[in-house]
Specification:
By secondary structure, this protein is of the alpha/beta class. It contains five helices and 26 strands. It folds into four domains: 1-32; 35-172, Leucine-rich repeat, LRR (right-handed beta-alpha superhelix), CATH 3.80.10; 199-342, Ribonuclease Inhibitor (Leucine-rich repeat, LRR (right-handed beta-alpha superhelix), Alpha-Beta Horseshoe), CATH 3.80.10.10; 358-403, no CATH class. A hairpin with a 4-residue loop joins strand 17 (216-219) and strand 18 (224-228).
Amino acid sequence: MSETLFRRRKRRLLWLAAMTLLFVSGVLAHNTEPVQAASTVTEDGYTVNRTYSYGRFTVAVTKYDGTDTALTLPAKATISEKEYTVEEVQSFLSDSQRARVTSITIPGGYTSIDVGAFRDCTALQSVTIPSTVTSISSSAFAGCTSLKKIQIADGGSALKISNAAFSGCTSLETATLPSRLKMDSDGTNYFYGCSALKEVSIPGSENFVTGENGALYAKNETGLTLVTWPEGSTTKKTEIPDSVRSLQVNVLGAHSLRDNKTIETLTVPASVTTFQRYCVNGCSNLKLLVLKAGTPSFEDSDYAFADMADGSVIQVASEEVRQALAGQTNNYTEGKTQIEVMKAADPCDLNGDGKVDLLDIGTAQKSYKAEQKDSDWDKHSACDLNGDGTVDLQDLTALYNKIYNR
């Protein structure tokens, strides 16, 4: 190699090294300010932190030193001589404050409420959430036992609420959610353990449907997924409908009936073939669970039926289903629950309690004189034991003879 060519290459390498050094120095100089965490305390006593990661700032409320019980969180904060919009609520209250704060107003500009942000705020009665919030994380309001009113503004970007966000809010009777709520892939129950809850609704939603008893369903590709079955509207003997508003119910969503302490007998129709994780978990008074599906899927149903009542029974449609469920011991509690194949129903067992007695005559009497031409015949047809299109004295006599073996 000639001396001239060698010098040219050497100069080129030195130039490249210098440019690289200048570039790196510029990047470091540019990032010196953002990578430094900083905080400020507002006039109202809120500590607001600014952090930097993944190329952006996060500005969040992290502490409160005041004594007010009706809180309006800060919308803006000045940190290092620059004003920022506050975007996130983290867990910022002390235990004593959680026992005193009665209302929370979150101003516009906030986008997320972090995991457990208001967990166990036992005095909290109302919360107002703006349309800018797009994420309410798991357990954000869990255990707020005095919470009676939730206001989540509509009209903003899509909102995602994570599982158990309002779990254990035992004073909550109704919940109205915005139509911008977005369902995740398999359904989550935001309200399990809310023992007083009677109705969940989402007015104007294209993705959700509300049932007659206040239950909330999400539309899936082939039908409906049960999201929430309100415990406050539950009877001891409960039956999931096979369809709602002409759409078939085919999935019990994750956690959908979890921790329901009211139900003692639950019947799930044959239309429901998919059971997701924890769907009937922790129903400690549930003694009889009837699964009518002939070919159910238990693939993603971890702990679906665990912790039912002592001595409880799960009745299934066939021996094949019994073996399939029995092979997944994490789905039920072996020491508490047995799995049995259901017996063919007696047509005279009109109330479905597994026996034919005077209670069935009472059921038939309620349908007495109903006729096939009636618009509500579907409610009475089971009492037409001889199939002549009328519930009459012949049907009541047949029941009486069945009971007394005549």
